[in-house]
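Subject — a protein and its fold
Fields — amino acid sequence, structure tokens
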Amino acid sequence: MSSHKAPSSIASTLDETAGQTPTVSALKRGLDILRCIEDAGGSLSLQDIAGRCGLPKATALRLLATLASSGFLRRSRSSGNYLLGPAVIGLSRVFLLQMDLRSTARPLLSALAEKLGGTTVLALREGSSMVVIEAHVPQSAVAVTRVGIGWHAPLTDSCMGHAYFSALPLGERQRLLAKLMQERPDRWGDPSKSVDRAVKEVAQLGFCTLLGQTMPGINSAATALLSPDGEVLVVACFAPEFNFGEQRLHDDVGPQVVHLAREIAAEIGGAAPRRPDAVNMELVLVDQRRRQQ
């Protein structure tokens, strides 16, 4: 992450880049700190935060004190490290409660999870990751994956992320890939080949699959749908490879994940996969009245 200079005036706190909406630098730095601590597993020292965020220690300390006074951070009495605070939980709780689609998707996710014997999830994009906002683990599961509400998966290295990319127009997909590679070249490398493979798979089948890449021994299938306001959502199903072999993923799990996406879209008035083409997955409105007949 690139370093920032301390602002000397109100005007200097705005990153006024041509063609972009001005942003407040101090606020962005504070949010970057929260993300940095989250990425590290929820605990970091002042020195680590300053280093990872590219900030002078004095600047980092002021930002940390501000975040702590607002309840977004707290300090460990034993280690002295900074931890995420209760205000973060409050924001996420309100955000999730406001999402009616979670309650709509829950019984549908539950029914498919029990039918297939795999964990089913609903996810959306958050930065460079897909974050799970609803999940169901089947009672019959022999082995339980660590996938659950709040779990993050990288856009470029996960089945959910690949499904998300497949729902984007070509130009937007290329811009996002370029942005991710520019921000974290050491982490991302060149993900275009794996994303292109997934896009072609979605074009042919309506869903994409991944064999053990995100989690060793765990295979998955995923597809995308659109909310009524145009946000890309992803539904996916995960299970150990002995339950979700490659053949079953293609013949059984994937098609049922697509059906699940269409069911959710019908309930919320969104769009779901119908007839993919060779470049993008085609998403079409689902007629709820027709579905209910």
The first helix runs from residue 25 to 39. The chain is about 45% helix and 20% strand.
